[in-house]
Amino acid sequence: MTTLADQPVTASNESFKLSMLLNDTRYRSLTFQFIALVAIIAFMAFVGGNLVRNLTEAGLNISYAFLGEPSGYDINQRPIEYDSQSSHGRAAVVGLLNTLIVAFLACVTATIFGVIAGVLRLSNNWIVSKLMSFYVEIFRNVPVLIWILIIFSVMINVAPSPRDFRGDDAVASMWLFDSIAVTNRGVYLPKPVMGDGSMIVLAVFALSVIGIFAFRNYARKQLFDHGRMVPVFWPSIGLFFIPAILTQFVLGNPITLSYPSLQGFNFRGGITILGSLIALWFALAIYTGAFIAENVRAGIQAISKGQTEAAAALGLRPNRIMSLVVLPQALRVIIPPLISQYLNITKNSSLAIAVGYMDVTGTLGGITLLQTGRAIETILLLMAFYLTVSLLISFFMNVFNNRMKLQER
Amino acid sequence: MSDTQAQTVAFVRETEIPPSPPPIREAGAVKWVRENLFSGWFNTIMTLVALYIILRIVIGVFPWFFNGVWDAGSIRECRDILEGATGACFAVLVDRWDHLLFGFNYPQDAYWRPTLAFVLLILAAVPALFYMYVPSKFLIGTALYPFLAYWLLWGGTLWLPIAVLAAIILTGVVFRLVESMTVSTRTIVAGIVGLVAGVGLAYLLYLGAKELWFISTSIGTGGAFAGLMSLVFKAFSIFTYVFFIPMGIFVGYAIYQSASDGGLVTLVTSLLAIALMMLYAVGPVSGVLNGIIPIELAAVESRQMGGFMLCMMLGAVCVSLSIPLGIVLALGRQSSMPLIKGVCIVFIEFVRGVPLITLLFVANVMLAYFFPPGSGLDLFLRVVIMITMFSAAYIAEVIRGGLAALPKGQYEAADSLGLNYAQATRLIILPQALKISIPGIVNVAVGLFKDTTLVSVISMFDIVGMIRGPIQQSTDWISIYWEPYLFAATCFFIVCYSISQYSQWLERQLQTDHH
Questions:
Q1: Quick one: which of A327, A378, B43, B87 is 20 to 30 A from B342 by CA?
Q2: Chain A residues with CB-CB distance to B353 below 8 A
Q3: A307 and A394: one domain?
Q4: Range among A322-326, B316-320, B472-476 with highest mean pLDDT value
Q5: Residue A188, φ and ψ in degrees, nearest 5
Q6: Between residues 465 and 484 of chain B, which touch chain A (CB distance below 8 Å)?
């Protein structure tokens, strides 16, 4: 901390005049900072004093003890063990996991949508490129909250209710050999049940994934060292599926599926994906996908035409030009804005509160806040959580970006 | 021609044969279709898929749209009219038109006021948006618009905005006056102003020190963290106690000392003048004037406002406030002073790291704790504060990008011309940096305008809040969703799309380099 008192000492060899604090550029910035410091402290005094007075007047204090108390409310999607007797802290953790789930799903889907739309928008097929610009403009210029609400409303109004699946003359039927039920309460999927020996199947699967990477390395080595092209695509696909499926058969189907079935008024068994999760996921993905499409388009267009022409002159085929020349360079342009789109998805996932998906804003910032009345504590925690997630995402993506970046000498 | 030939030839064609038309497959629409839509098997599939999607959209939307019922009192009446056919029920838009636009609480006889304000907004925006075609004197109208719009929307006496305007103009006059004084006169002014400002500042700091001590004693119990905070506040308090008199003397002296070049004394005098006028003159003067010539509109409170009007108001106010704040933050972040830089970085990164909803929660339930008890800031104002902070952080980042994109030579050239920091920033750096940042700023502005719908989450009745609350939950229009949401989406689309088109046009206009 620099104070006025320090300054005469540092300038003791010259005759120091008070006016030098203002007129001498060596000291002026210190003066300004000192004044800024005093202003900040004064601001804190104003805000803090009001806070203390207001809290005493309302008979409140700042305490995080409520996090240990039983919450007394239910959460409709629980990635970890939770019931209404669990603590508010645990409810917050459940909400946090729900936020991460929807953010992750939406990031992956939005990237797929965005890359497809961005590439197709540059297609020389007139209808396809116009359709894609239509998609991009429509979704970019309407608030995401409206999209979330529209998709949620369509889901609960158009999808059949579980009651419609009942009886012999059922109005609705399940999809894919009675394994998937789409209802207005959510989508019910088969759930894998781990029997004896299922760990072996999973281990074989993990080994074959490692094997794929090893094989690709080997193929590249062959190409670079001996100039031999080893086919990669189909062997990789084979490696991915065949060993695990074989083990599954040899061990006598240790992993089985539990299908959802209609019991009472609702489906039981299987995995439930809530309607609110689907609405939020899909809306965020399709909305952010439109932005990512623009980033992808800009990235591809940023690569000069000479690169494409040079590659064509070397005799590369169009899809090789794209994958070997254009995309690796475009990726460098695309990744930084992509990071901020991922951050936007994470932050926009807080709109879950509008459709009743219990993310951290719904649990900690919603019901816990209302029940305990501890506005300051819950909101500070909420902000700290989002801040941490944002900083972590940008940290990891920046690491990735630095690895992708052109290594300049 | 044939005279030039040595012998007479039987036949020589003297004109060219007109070219025969290209084969039909290589010309006109057919060629275009072949090359653009069916150039290969993949392209053909894509075209067919796209055509199928368009067909599905058309089949889905057209009957629904053109069968639409525009005249019905409730959703049941609508269904009776349609008799099972697909068709939209646009009657909800007709029935709740006022609610969608103005909210359900805005006095009905005053609808002309926001409408007029909206029309005037467009008129006032034109000179600023198309400044290269409109004579600059029309910008005066743009400058007057906020005062007029305030009066139209909130009502009350017209004399209040006029008095505020007069105070601002008077401050400008004071500024010019002090600036143009002779040094000896200004020395007297500087002495008085320096004394007042120094004593006032010392007194404020003394109050602050007392306040800090009060805070430290009130949080001193319970837990190590509270104890630590208490110590921190104690340290701040002692720091302020030590420095309130030297600070007062120093600032007073600095003002007095600046009499010769006049920079600081002019600024401080103007600030003092406007603060005094705002605090003590504006209210009474406008009251007296209104007593003599009453020009009044019925007052409307902020919480009575809603619908799309609320989105427009929040968007316009917050964008125009956040651009100057964003510029200040961006300059602060580029500053060489570590403390100021640090504060700006922390603010920007904090705001950018949290979702707008949490900031709106702050506005809704937390912000009131930070103001003096009983100050009763209304929700609209609190939301404006938080949204402005939010978008200012984003705009600051955009402008920082613009500042970073300027070649270093520009800064050095400004320095070598002998310009000081303020002059260099105002005359050289900012005009270029802002020009580079226009697309980014417009993006932020569009995003901000779309984000105004989030206020529906904290129970303000903007257009989305109106649909989710009073419309979908009324008995007449229970759970109607396509029509009102599509209407809201259309409203936003029109505004956002025009803004982004304008920004692209402006970018082309400002392009000074060659391509």
A1: A378
A2: 386-387, 390-391
A3: yes
A4: B316-320
A5: -110, 125
A6: 467-468, 479, 481-482
Identify the domain containing residue A282 by its residue range.
88-143+276-404
Do both A312 and A367 map to the same domain? yes
Does the beta-carbon distance from A45 to B215 stay under 8 Å?
yes
Identify any residues that bridge with A262 across adjacent strands, giving them in sequence order.
A267
pLDDT tens digit sequence for B480-512: 888 899 999 999 999 999 998 998 888 888 877
Task: Verify whether the Cβ–Cβ distance B47 to A157 is below 8 Å.
Answer: no
ipTM score: 0.86
* Residue B493, pLDDT score: 95
Is there a domain that residue A399 lies in? yes
**Chain A (337-356) residues lying within 8 Å, Cβ to Cβ, of chain B:** 347-348, 350-351, 353-354
Q: A180 has which bridge partners?
A: A175
Long-range contacts of B274-280 (CB under 8 A, 24+ apart): B274/B167, B274/B168, B274/B171, B277/B167, B277/B170, B277/B171, B278/B164, B278/B167
- Residue A210 in any domain: the answer is no
> Taking CB atoms and an 8 Å limit, are B496 and A142 in contact across chains?
yes
Quote the percentage of chain A above a pLDDT of 70.
89
CB contact under 8 A, B496 and A146: no
Interface mutation vs chain B, best among A158, A345, A379, most B CBs within 10 Å: A379
Identify which of B54, B251, B355 has the shortest CB distance to residue A347: B355
pLDDT tens sequence across B138-152: 888 888 999 999 999
Q: How distant is the Cα of B316 from the closest Cα of chain A, in angstroms? A: 16
Which pTM was predicted?
0.85
**Residue A176 counted as domain residue:** no
**Res. B392: pLDDT tops 90:** yes
User: Do B174 and B276 form a contact (C-beta atoms < 8 A)?
Assistant: no
**Confidence at A9, pLDDT banded by 50, 70, 90:** very low
Q: How many domains does chain A contain in total?
A: 2
Residue B79 vs residues A336, B67, B69, B83, B472: alpha-carbon distances, Å? 51, 12, 9, 6, 16
Contact B218 A52 (CB under 8 A): yes
Give alpha helix (H) positions in A59-177. 88-121, 126-140, 144-158
